[in-house]
Each structure stands twice: as C-alpha cells, then as structure tokens.
Amino acid sequence: MAYLYTIYLFRIKENEQLQNLMERAFLLSSNPINRNNQKRLVHILWLFIGLSIVWMLMALITVNIQMAERNIVFQWMENSPYQVKTTLKVFLIVCTLWHDMVQGTIITSYCLQGQLLMSHLYFLRGKLLQHILQPIDWMRDIDEFKKLLKYFNDELGPAVCIYTIVNLSWAAAGIVWLFQYYINDGNNNAVTYVNVMNVILWILISIAPFIQAARLTNACSMIRAVGHEIRIRPFVYQTTPGEDLDSILLYTSSLKICARLFRIPIKGRYLCFLLTIGSISILTLGQCQFFI
Predict the structure, then answer these.
(1) What is the mean predicted confidence (pLDDT) over 181-189?
(2) Has residue 152 got a pLDDT over 80?
(3) Across-strand partners of 66?
(4) φ/ψ bin of 171: left (φ > 0), alpha (ψ from -120 to 50), beta (otherwise)
(5) What value does the mean pLDDT take over residues 103-127?
C-alpha cells in the first residue's frame, strides 16, 4: 500500500514540492546576513542524505549477515531443493533492498522538506524583524508557506504514517523475539547482535519523522510569537503606523499551523513523553523476562 501511494505521489501526481521548497528557502537566504545560515542549511540537508544512505547500507548488511549465518529459514518450504531455497533468499535480499530504498527515500524526503520548511520560517522571521519585507508582503509569504505545509501534512504525511506502522510493528516483534531468544537459548552469538542492530534501525527510521515534525511545530510556535516581538521594537518599526503593527500582531496570533502525523499535531513534549513510556515498557518487559 505504501509503495503504491509512493508511486502515485512521486510519479503520477508529479508534484515538485521539494524543488519549490529549496528554491524558496535559498531565495529567502540570499541576502548577506543569512549567508552563514545558508551554508548551515546545505550542510544539514547533506547530513540527512548521508544518514539515509548509511541506514540503507546498514539494513543491507544486516540482511546479508543473517543470510550468511543461515539465520533465515523458510519453514513452509523446508523440504524444497537447495536451489529453490537459494533463489528465495536472493529474491528476499533484492525485495528487502528495494523496500528499504523506497521507504528511505520517502522518509528522507519528509525530513528534508521539514528542514526546508523550518528554514523558510526562520528566514521569514528574520526578514520581518529586520523590516526587510513589508508586512503585507510578509503575510503573503506566510500564506504560501501554509500551502506548502498543507502538502507536507496531507500528501507526504500519510506515506510516512504507513511506513511508521510497518516499522514499529517489526521493531516490536523483533524486541519480543530477542527476549524469547535469550531466555530459550542463552546464546550471545553474532547473529543476535545483528538482530539487535536490525531492531535499532527500525526504531530510528520510525522516530526520525516525528522528531522533524516536532521541530517544525516548534518553529511554527515561534512564528506565532513574532508579532509580539516587533510590537516592542521601538527603533526598527518606529516609522510604521501602530495600526499596521496591530494587524501583524493579530495575524500572527491567529495562525494555526503545525506539523501533523496521523492527523495529530506533533509536539516535542508529547513526543518525549511517548519515547519515555516506550523505553520504560521495553525495560520492564526485559526485567520480567529475565526474572520470571
């Protein structure tokens, strides 16, 4: 389902959201004041791309190690010829690599667009505080940002949600299997550590979009407070009529923008709470397994 939705999103719909975001972000950062921020943005974008490549390579390595150690067994074809089993294993590696590449592309695109949206907001905030943009032009830019955010939440978000459900289910099943493996066998071989790495990879790619969404929501909250900041700046806006400042204050205070996944606003404090609950649950499950 996620793969079909990905094809629809990137091939059939032909939306150039990522390119538009990059153009807007770099145009907003083109003035000399934001030159360092522009370089920092480029480094962050390349960091996300590099991390996605590392994740795909690690996922491929773990599958190959499990294959080499004969840890992958097709129970429903246990009595099949050796050539059939080998063909199935090769097919499994190819399909796993393809799946990881697709979901890595989707989640990397989500993280990249989230970072560009954050930079978009930071640059718009800086231009308003420095009075580089007129208030009416700034409001138009915010309206354009809301359209970009709507695509981010309503079009790209569902694909990430589908992959999150799959990855979290795999991670949960892997954790339970590891606890059962330690109890039943008591072995600490290399394959077990590879399985642990596999679970960690699933967890990391599951929580990465939520971290980006929480950071974007925090940036949106910062924009809602910018009206108060310019209202108390006596020098930068000393020639601006009070009615215009009040209009900006009212406009920013009434903004309802945030990052959403599963149609739920993602906030940092809620994300930290859920991660804490998840960590406590895993530790509790481990103690119950070892002490019963």
Answers:
(1) 58
(2) yes
(3) none
(4) alpha
(5) 91
* Cβ-contact 28, 127 below 8 angstroms: yes
Buried b (16+ CB within 10 A) or exposed e, 120-152: bbbbbbbbbeebebebeebbebbeebeebbebb
For residue 284, give the amino acid letter: T
Is-contact 121 220, C-beta < 8 A?
A: yes
Evaluate if residue 291 carries a pLDDT over 50.
no
Residue pair 211/271 in contact by the 8 Å Cβ criterion: yes
More confident residue, 86 or 163: 163
CB proximity list for 117: less than 8 A, separation 6 or greater? 21, 145, 148, 149, 152, 216, 219
The rounded distance, in Å, linking the Cα atoms of 257 and 266 is: 11
pTM of this structure? 0.87
